[in-house]
Design brief:
418 residues; mainly alpha; Growth Hormone, Chain: A; two-stranded parallel ribbon; 2 strands
């Protein structure tokens, strides 16, 4: 067997191992984070009784990622991405455990929640570009679409299903056990990521020199529209951040329901997302990636506009919202990851995270203030209008460059920011 074939086989085995370990690691980490943030949001709302107070909690989570994501993204492209993920998980485990210790010694719940979630966000600013860089590095390009559907299904279903349980568990046991679980989830995630092993060696690239006709036209590499693809993906982050804030207030204040309904609604959204992610493979065969990213987002926004009409409408619409969100989210993620060169994927996803959360912070403050000044449904409709304008505008700006790429052979495509 030749050296090239041996290295190729090692890379294929490494890719399969990475797929098997990164998916459960994503599920465990996001489930733990969901327990933490949902319990913290309930504590803060009961302490302050305003939408903006909950909004500031999510802003405290977002500010470090906005400030540090780009810098950490550049670091990710220079340092071992696997060990960066492990280090971020272990630091997060210690930080998460500090919050229940603070509560046990009688510290104020709202202050402890703000500080702990702020510190966790600092390590998340490193983990996010490192984990995406690790995925691009270890998963073969032809497997990215399928892997992303599995990874997003695991991560988002873990977040939504854990959020649904958190509403009930806070009532039964209080918030402290959920914070302890979050600490343990980081440790388990670090073990799974470490088990992936070292990066396999790549087969050497052999350039084949052939005679060419000097008069023949030269193919010009097509520039990938990375910045616009990043905005398409970041649009989902805006929706997640704002919706988490205003949904809590809609249920507890507008509909005057208990924390149990947060659990029911998140469970319904989780079911919709899981079904959507599971169906992504079949749906993506019928639609182009860009069309699926846009149509999935618009379908989610239609459901978003229906949700504040009545709590029955909320429970009826949110599974369909989860299904549509899955289609748009996975398609946008796959488009961006395929367009990103491996040596720059850390800074691209770090920058995307910073932009998405930065816009999310501004939207959270504006729409939370609108909800407190008028009524919560206006915040839902304002969010739908904002996200709709972004996705439609981005789609029209992408139509021409993506059409040009489809007319060129794959070997002349060059992933560069445009």
């Amino acid at each position: 067997m030749s050296l090239d074939s041996t290295l190729s086989a090692d890379a294929a085995r490494s890719s399969r191992l990475a797929e098997r370990l990164l998916v459960p690691a994503g599920f465990i980490t996001t489930a733990g984070n969901a327990f933490q943030i949902t319990a913290a949001a309930i504590l803060v709302f009961h302490a302050e009784q305003t939408t903006l107070a909950v909004g500031w909690l999510f802003i405290a989570v977002s500010i470090p990622q906005v400030a540090l994501a780009v810098m950490f993204g550049k670091l990710v492209d220079k340092v071992d991405r696997r060990m960066l993920c492990v280090a971020a998980d272990l630091v997060s485990a210690m930080t998460a455990f500090a919050l229940p210790v603070w509560l046990w010694i009688g510290g104020p719940a709202n202050l402890g929640s703000y500080i702990a979630n702020f510190m966790l966000a600092c390590t998340a600013a490193l983990f996010m570009p490192a984990s995406n860089g690790l995925i691009k590095e270890r998963i073969r390009d032809e497997r990215l679409g399928k892997f992303n559907s599995h990874f997003e299904m695991a991560s988002n279903s873990g977040m939504l299903l854990a959020s649904s349980l958190a509403g009930f568990l806070v009532i039964w046991f209080g918030a402290t056990p959920l914070f302890v679980f979050n600490s343990l989830s980081f440790v388990l995630s670090a073990v799974l990521v470490y088990a992936i092993g070292r990066k396999p060696a790549k087969a050497p690239v052999v350039e084949e020199i052939t005679a060419t006709d000097p008069s023949a036209p030269v193919e010009v590499p097509v520039r990938q529209p990375i910045k616009r693809l990043a905005l398409l993906y970041a649009n989902g982050n805006i929706g997640l951040m704002v919706a988490n804030v205003i949904l809590t207030t809609l249920i507890l204040q507008t509909f005057n329901q208990g924390a149990w309904m947060i659990g029911v609604v998140d469970a319904l959204a989780g079911v919709g997302f899981i079904v959507g992610a599971a169906a992504y493979g079949k749906v993506s065969k019928r639609f182009k990636g860009i069309h699926l990213a846009v149509l999935g987002t618009l379908g989610n926004l239609i459901c978003l506009a229906i949700q504040p009409l009545h709590y029955i409408a909320l429970m009826a619409a949110i599974p369909f919202a989860g299904f549509c969100f899955a289609q748009g989210r996975i398609a946008a993620r796959t488009l961006l990851m395929r367009a990103s060169p491996e040596d720059r994927v850390g800074r691209i996803f770090g920058g995307t995270q910073a932009v998405g959360l930065g816009l999310g912070v501004g939207a959270t403050v504006a729409l939370s203030s609108l909800a407190d000044a008028t009524a919560v449904p206006y915040a839902f409709w304002g969010l739908a209008i904002l996200q709709g304008a972004i996705v439609i505008g981005t789609y029209f700006s992408l139509a021409k460059p993506l059409s040009a790429q489809e007319k060129r052979p794959a070997e002349v495509l060059e992933a560069t920011a445009a």
